[in-house]
Amino acid sequence: MNVRPTSLRTKIILSFLGVIVVGGLLSFVFGSRLIRRTLITQAQAKIRYDLSSAWMVFNGRLSDIRDVVRLTAARESLREALAKGRLELLLKYLSRVRAENGLDVLNLTDPGGRVILRTRTPASTGDDLAPNPIIRQALEGEISAGPEIVTQDALGRESADLAARAAIDLVSTPRAAPREGTRETSGMMLSAAAPVLAEDGTLLGVLQGGVLLNRNFEIVDRVKELVFKDERYKGLETGTATVFQGDVRISTNVTDERGERAIGTRLSEEVKRAVLDEGRPWLARAFVVKDWYITAYEPIRDAAGRIIGILYVGILEKPYLDEAARVLRAFAWIGVPTIAVLFAILFLATTRIVRPLQTMAAAAREIARGDLSHRVEVKSRDEVGALAESFNLMTDHLREANAELIEWGKTLEKKVEERTRELREIQDHLVQSEKLASIGKLAAGIAHEINNPLGGILIYGHLILEDTPPNRPQYENLKKIIKETTRCKDIVKGLLDFARPREPETVPTDVADVLEKCLDFTKRQALFQNIRVEKAFGPDLPRVVGDPAQLQQVFMNLILNAAEAMNGQGTLGLRVEVDAGRGELVVDFADTGHGIREEHKARLFEPFFTTKEVGLGTGLGLAISYGIIRKHQGTIDVRSEAGKGTVFTVRLPLQGRKS
Hints:
By secondary structure, the chain is α+β, with helices and mostly antiparallel strands.
């Protein structure tokens, strides 16, 4: 069976497509890792900041308890009542203080540390609290506060309901370390103590108060409200906070499979070993009850410096992984059309290279049939042209030799036949040798010239366009190829600008002056001929620290978007004013266009999202503008109502403001 040989064009196209596909796959693999690592790094930086905020809430509540105890202990009426032994009056007053300030415990001891008054259970007195480090510091005349572990017996002396609230059944948790027992009975309390001093400085006793954290969700819910804004992703809480007593969750807004707070679930063994056993903070991904989170854990220490628990914050990992997948899909949507365009251009380019060789092959067949007058018309000045000249020269020699043989006559027919056979063998050898040499040089030249496929495609596209008369049907196709290739190049450049925006070169900048330059540029464009511009620039506007060129890029993008939204007819309002309360310069861009639909607002600043027709926009303009404003420590927001116009608001910090 005869197998048809693979054509030179097919070999060239397959070779370059192989390079493109392999390079694309490698870029996709390494790019996916880089994107994922970048997003996770950003999430870890955020969670580190969120943990600091959680500590502020935690320590703020402890400070509130300390202030209540300190101020109450300093009341003159309390000192007088304690000095006179009026315990009934003290019970009434301290009970009211405990209730008003949300304290679970408020007790009074004598100068030796023995309890003389419990507001929850007045009949339970006489136990010695002096060994408690917080009480001991107060007995020495200092105000002290901190978290502590309170035993079940001690809680029972306070009240039965506190002991019941502290008791937590342990829940079997994946990845948790082995542990004896099935129930935690002690509790973690934020406690504070202050000395009650007579006017002459004599110690009259110690006032001690505290809040039990077991099943008290005030701190963790406050952290979620302040730090994570109660955001959800696909029905899941994106941010969670937890207070651990040892490795047991005693206060949390992490939920279990039933959607209930995961009280009694436990810490993973890996995190327990790092934080509880070794006392190191943990900042990494961790499995929390039923999902993977990007987490931050830090040990909670009591007044003696012992690790008694952990403060945790975490954000759901899935949104970041989904975002990485969205970016990779965007890359794929760019890569597939690009390969298709490259294939079309490669086909056209190889046609120009292979066609002269096909012409010479056809000429060789004509000569082989006896037509020695046939010539090859090749005008290129390269290796292929040199081969054609050699081919024609060979044909001329053959024709001359053939004429000489005819003149010798029939008597020399045998010698003529032998000579012809020799010449044809030489001809075949020369054709084959020259063809192989030319193909070798041609392949080397192609490999050298097309080192950068996209740049080479543009160069050859322009060269082909210059050599093609405008009346040829290929002329418009070549223009489209060059236009689409240039568009691919611009798309890649825009994507690089969103992901790796250069750092702004900041100088004191007059925003009004930047806007004026933008308007001066647009007033000469046809799109703005029927648009009325209304400016409202406040007097004595301060400068901001920024990059004028980058700010002009953002303003031009917003102005052009407004003009396109109004279809070149309407009113464009520009307002610049100072928000003294927030220390910001506010720039409004208002148009009277068609507005933005509600379902599109949340995606305006996503890369590759656009409502424009295909080919009229890449969807990167607002994403890049958003990144530039973030680099300037500012914000960009949008207000819009369908059919009534849109207002984009840019806020920039005033010169000298700390971010």
